[in-house]
Amino acid sequence: MKTPWADLFKEILPPIAELERLSPGTVEEKRQLDAAWEKTNVLGAKTRELIAVAVGATTRCSECISRHAQLAVQYGATQEEIAEAVGIAVAINAGTALTYAAKALQAGQEYANSRNDSGRVRL
Q1: 40 with 21: CB under 8 angstroms?
Q2: ∠ CA(42), CA(8), CA(75), 5° rounding?
Q3: I want to staple 72 with a disulfide (CB 3.0 to 4.6 A). Which of 25, 49, 85, 93 is the partner?
Q4: According to DSSP H, which parts of 41-120 are helical?
Q5: Which CATH superfamily is domain 5-89 in?
Q6: Residue ranges of the domains in the chain?
Q7: In terms of pTM, does the model score above 0.90?
C-alpha cells in the first residue's frame, strides 16, 4: 500500500532529528538556507513553494514533493500552477538531456577523429 503524501514528510522527521543529534551543523545549515530565502520574499511564498515542488520532482525527492506541495497549496497554489511548475521542470530536464546528448555526440566524434594509424583511439 502506498504511503499517503501527507505521511511522507512526517515519516522522515525522526531520522532527521537523529541526524541533527549526530551532526547538528548539517541540519542547522539547512535551516539557515531556508531562512535566507524567506528574508527577501521577492518571489513570495507561493512562487517559492512552486519552485520547490518542481525541484523536488526533478531531484526525485518524494518527501520534498510532499512538504512543498502541501505548502504551495497552503499559500494558494492551484493544481494548474503546480502542473505548470513541474512541466517547466520537465522541459528544463529534457533540455539538459538534449545538450548532454549533443556533448556525447561531440565526444564520440572527437575520439573518432583521434584514431591512430592502427585504428586505436588516442587518449
Answers
A1: no
A2: 25
A3: 49
A4: 45-58, 62-74, 79-113
A5: AhpD-like (1.20.1290.10)
A6: 5-89
A7: no
